[in-house]
């Protein structure tokens, strides 16, 4: 099989950081090729180079054996490659049709022909079997539909190579299956794909080959059938790792988080829950179950229509984050880019924000104390960085996620709400994040862990399963995967 896309001996530096060090990848025509590596291994940097957003300092990119176009020739790049990112590149205030034909409106004279535009968009969506209304506002689409529009847009430019960068991070089980069906169909049509994910099972299901990067270097490329799971993990981490062992504990008697009669229209109805100090309660359910909306209500990001929330003995003001934080809550939001950290501030500043008052006097923070705390957090959570002064915006996605958790844990919270804490986090870092949550619970926090990952939920003392906005079952520890999934899919109550 001929090589469709190749990066050869690529080096890329950001100041003192070497993001790629003579690394490369060769992707055969028509295959789905996984790119794996721990957080900060250099995957996103390679994506930006393969899509022509950045030039390598050294090395070259080839498409079908020919040198890549000049960076400024965006059209030439669009005909060769497209990337579906975890974060959408679609403009929410425009319609689907406008998004599809952005920058290439069909004009007659200088007027945009809206009717023709909508018709072309409809044809294009039909051609790729995407069941989305062309005149809908893109901002109203769900993650799954949005991804399909992005794939159709990529193909419509003529690209035969698509990069999927953690596409399943925000999809629930059935949506992931539908994405895989579509990927298989695209592959049958000869489309070449590069697939980035921290879910190794997905790689075995959907990819034919795998390349692993570690510390900015290429480590191995193999057919997936020839690289068993433990060897793959060892290639990523540089050592053999064992599965995470959930710890057992006895919850206390005082109540850390309680909610009664909570309802929010179109999200969830009549929810009551009670989490004791030293107890870890999971919240599970499919995409439309209401679990994230409920968790966001507990932390004050949303305001329920009815009901009350008490955190650590204080009735908190509805829809008011400072009130919840003031009562002793720490939280990790779903959308860490909007709510999780301040990109221009350093790791030390971000991670110690809630405890700034404890690190100095009279409104000033002693830099040495802040640094010391931050150095400890970097070590505890295994954050890959130049040091505590590096801005969080420069960290890889997974490492930025760890800073958000460090911040949530920094003030020894009495109550903790974490939403999908391990999304985008590598196989080894997952263990340190789960360990950090269990540590906080052992120190007495009452915690709610919302997750789409069964492996995360396994550390919980019990799991509340939501279905269509209601808590349908309280499942004690010791469940099997099929049992929990059946409840999540509404097959058993
Ligand atoms: N703009 C930048 N400025 C400074 N350093 C950067 C920048 N972009 C990336 N880096 C650094 O380059 C290294 C590689 O990062 P990259 O984002 O490619 O990792 P990744 O493999 O995609 O990780 P993740 O799985 O967490 O997304 C990291 O150490 C990161 O901090």
UniProtKB/TrEMBL annotation:
Q: Does the keyword ATP-binding apply?
A: yes
Q: Which UniProt keywords apply?
A: ATP-binding, Nucleotide-binding, Repeat, Transport
Domain ABC transporter: where? 5-240, 248-493
Alphabetized GO MF terms: ATP binding
Q: Secretion signal: which residues?
A: none
- SUPFAM superfamilies, alphabetically? P-loop containing nucleoside triphosphate hydrolases
InterPro entries per UniProt: AAA+_ATPase, ABC_carbohydrate_import_ATPase, ABC_transporter-like_ATP-bd, ABC_transporter-like_CS, P-loop_NTPase
Positions of transmembrane segments = none
Stated name of the protein: Sugar ABC transporter ATP-binding protein
